[in-house]
Amino acid sequence: MSEGESQTVVSSGSDPKVESSSSAPGLTSVSPPVTSTTSAASPEEEEESEDESEILEESPCGRWQKRREEVNQRNVPGIDSAYLAMDTEEGVEVVWNEVQFSERKNYKLQEEKVRAVFDNLIQLEHLNIVKFHKYWADIKENKARVIFITEYMSSGSLKQFLKKTKKNHKTMNEKAWKRWCTQILSAL
Question: What domains are defined for the chain?
Answer without folding.
Answer: 52-154 (3.30.200.20), 155-187 (no CATH)
